[in-house]
Design goal:
197 residues; alpha+beta; Glutaredoxin; five-stranded mixed beta sheet; 5 strands; 56% helix
Length: 197
C-alpha cells in the first residue's frame, strides 16, 4: 500500500503542475438545493474515520434534516490513495441520483473487505463486486476505471478543496462554510446543525 501511495502522490504532484484548473464536474449532493444549511464532507473512501462518520452521522442526518429539506448534504472526494480514487470512479459510474448515496454507504460499510492489501487489481475487483450489487456490469465499470476524464475530474476536485479549505485530514466537515471540529457524535452534530437553522 505504501508503494501505491508513493506513486499516487507523484501523480498528484505532476497533476498539480500541469492541470491546476477549475473544477467543472459535479459534486455528489442530495437534499434541497436551497436549504438553509449545507454540510460538506471531504473524505477518502479508504479512510476508516470517514466510514465511521458516514455510519454514525449521515443516516440520522438524512432522516431528520436532509429528507425534509432542511439540509443539503455534499460528498466531496478527497482520495488519499489510488484505491480511494478508483472507488470514487466507480461511485460516479453511471448510477443516478439517490442510488449514488446508497452505493457510497455500501462502499463505506464494506471498506474493510475491499480497501486491503497492495494489489490494485484485486482491490479494483473487490470494488467492482460492490458495484455489481447496483446492476453495473463488468464492462461498464472497466470502462469507467479507464476513463482519464473521470479521474481528472476527481483529482481536480481534490486540488481545489486543498487550495480553498487547506484539508489536513479526512473527514473534514464544514457546516455552512464553518469547519466542524466536534466529536463524531450525532447529538453534538445535530446541535451544530440546529444553530444554523
Amino acid at each position: 500500500m505504501k508503494e501505491i501511495s508513493r506513486i499516487f502522490y507523484k501523480i498528484i504532484f505532476l497533476f498539480l503542475l500541469t492541470f491546476a484548473v477549475e473544477v467543472n464536474g459535479k459534486i455528489l449532493s442530495e437534499g434541497n438545493a436551497d436549504a438553509k444549511v449545507t454540510v460538506k464532507v471531504f473524505s477518502s473512501l479508504t479512510c476508516p474515520a470517514c466510514a465511521n462518520f458516514h455510519s454514525e452521522i449521515y443516516y440520522e442526518l438524512k432522516k431528520e434534516f436532509i429528507d425534509v429539506g432542511l439540509v443539503k448534504f455534499e460528498h466531496h472526494p478527497f482520495p488519499l490513495d489510488l484505491a480511494a480514487l478508483n472507488a470514487e470512479v466507480i461511485l460516479r459510474c453511471s448510477i443516478k441520483g439517490e442510488k449514488k448515496f446508497e452505493l457510497l454507504g455500501k462502499i463505506y460499510k464494506k471498506q474493510n473487505l475491499w480497501a486491503v492489501g497492495s494489489d490494485i487489481n484485486k482491490i479494483n475487483e473487490s470494488i467492482k463486486k460492490i458495484g455489481s450489487e447496483f446492476d453495473m456490469n463488468d464492462e461498464k465499470m472497466n470502462n469507467c476505471l479507464k476513463n482519464d476524464k473521470s479521474q481528472d475530474e476527481i483529482l481536480n476536485q481534490r486540488i481545489e478543496a486543498q487550495k480553498k479549505y487547506n484539508i489536513q485530514s479526512t473527514p473534514t466537515i464544514y457546516i455552512n462554510e464553518k469547519k466542524y471540529s466536534g466529536k463524531v457524535d450525532y447529538k453534538q452534530f445535530k446541535k451544530a446543525i440546529e444553530k444554523n437553522l
